[in-house]
Amino acid sequence: MKSKSVRFPDAAPRVAGTLSKRAATPTRVSRRTQLLKPPIRLLTAVPICDGHDSAINTINLEFIHCGVEVVYLGYHRSARDIVRAATQEDVRAIGLSSYNGGHVEFFTEVVELLKRQGANDIGVFGGGGGTITKADAAIMQKKGVDRIFFAGAPLSEIVKFAKIAYGANRRAGWRARGETISDPDRRIARMLTAAETGDRDEGAYFRGAPAKGSGPITIGITGPGGAGKTTLIDELVLRFLKASPRTRLAILSHDPSLIGQGALLGDRASMVYSQDDRVFMRSLATRGQAGGLSPASGRCLRLLKRGGFDRVFVETVGIGQEAAPFGGEPVDRVILVMSPDYGSRLQLQKIVMLDVADIVVLNKSDLSGAKTAAAEIEQRLALTGRGQKLIQTVARRHRDPGVDELFRLAIS
């Protein structure tokens, strides 16, 4: 199934009045501020065999309120998963919350894996309440951990440490020094950071590297918050990985920034099958731009198209009725994901994306009211005259036939 290219912008997205070519002017962070002082990006996670996530969630919120962008990987994560994510996200440091023992070995493994990846400029810090002793902390710091916090440490102290230790870009000037990066994920991650922070020479990272054929098929996925977009992408990733042992996928995921503050980039915490070496995932914060995407989305997608991937997924922030995020850089297909609880039939008439999407997915179709919702959406789509396909899925269910149908359309 082939559709017309739909475009999304580097700058202001089209919102209300999209179809009438009227562009709204969103509230956004000044370009000068963005270039001079990009937010600190940290990755936080809880080690494998540890399900205590309340402490890390509290710390995440404090970081966000203090202007930090936090990529949260979730709990019960292996050292390999953590290092892969930190490398792809090109964060300044990894913060680990460990309450289950084995911390000396686990933290050391993270530090060693970073060194092997050529990413030893990514710092490591953490804490564990009463489970990490001062003697353990001394050993861990000798092995390369920057700092361990103990029970009773104020949140303000943790934030102050992170801002001082990781606020200055320790990688500044790496390209000028002629540093080479052999790891493909690391190279792409650095390139995306340059694109996100406004480095006009980000194209230099792929200079001399030919595009793969005509480029990968790009799939834009949008919909209201809570519709299940991330879970649906993860299920599609599983099917792509199984379909071919050589398939490489990229995911460009977006989460909202708090006004004047940081952002919680939490889509990785919902991913299961995407924690794979053949999947590259990058999280972007909206940084003051309305409409579902980041000011750097277009630049980042253009770079990912030259990264040798077979498919690139672009997942937007949860959107409202007026939003039509894809309007700048070509996306081959647009999928709108909805759930049955959109409200009355009248609400359907107001959803702009029903006129724009190539495929509409009614997810969570096992919920009460799904049959009525499917009938109403079908009637709404008939009015567009575009022959759009409606697929009903239950993405959280293993081997869901609806997701299988969507995958067949995605590979065609």
Keywords, please?
412 residues, alpha/beta, Rossmann fold, seven-stranded parallel β-sheet, six-stranded parallel β-sheet, 13 helices, elongated, disordered N terminus
Furnish the topology, listing elements before pairings.
Blueprint: E1 6-8, H1 31-36, E2 41-45, H2 54-65, E3 69-72, H3 79-89, E4 93-97, H4 103-116, E5 123-127, H5 134-142, E6 147-149, H6 155-166, H7 184-196, E7 217-222, H8 229-243, E8 249-255, E9 263-265, E10 279-285, H9 297-304, E11 311-315, E12 329-331, E13 333-338, H10 345-348, H11 353-356, E14 359-362, H12 370-382, E15 389-392, H13 401-411
Parallel strand pairs: 2-3, 2-4, 3-9, 4-5, 5-6, 7-11, 7-13, 8-10, 8-11, 13-14, 14-15
Antiparallel strand pairs: 1-12
Helix pairs in contact: 3-4, 4-5, 7-9, 8-13
Give an account of the 3D structure.
- It is a single chain.
- The radius of gyration is 22 Å and the shape is elongated.
- It folds into three domains: 6-16 and 210-411, Rossmann fold (3-Layer(aba) Sandwich); 41-166, Cobalamin-binding domain (Rossmann fold, 3-Layer(aba) Sandwich), CATH 3.40.50; 173-206, no CATH class.
- Helix 4 (103-116) packs parallel to helix 5 (134-142) and helix 8 packs across helix 13.
- 46% of the residues are buried.
- Strand 5, helix 5 and strand 6 form a beta-alpha-beta unit.
- 32% of the residues lie in helices and 17% in strands.
- The strands form three sheets. The chain has a seven-stranded parallel beta sheet, with helices on both faces. Strands 6-5-4-2-3-9 form a six-stranded parallel beta sheet, with helices on both faces. The protein has a two-stranded antiparallel sheet with strand order 1-12.
- It is an alpha/beta fold and 412 residues long.
- The protein has helices at residues 31-36, 54-65, 79-89, 103-116, 134-142, 155-166, 184-196, 229-243, 297-304, 345-348, 353-356, 370-382, 401-411, and strands spanning 6-8, 41-45, 69-72, 93-97, 123-127, 147-149, 217-222, 249-255, 263-265, 279-285, 311-315, 329-331, 333-338, 359-362, 389-392.
- Mean pLDDT is 85; it is low at 1-36 and 172-178.
- It starts with 5 loop residues before the first strand and ends with a helix.
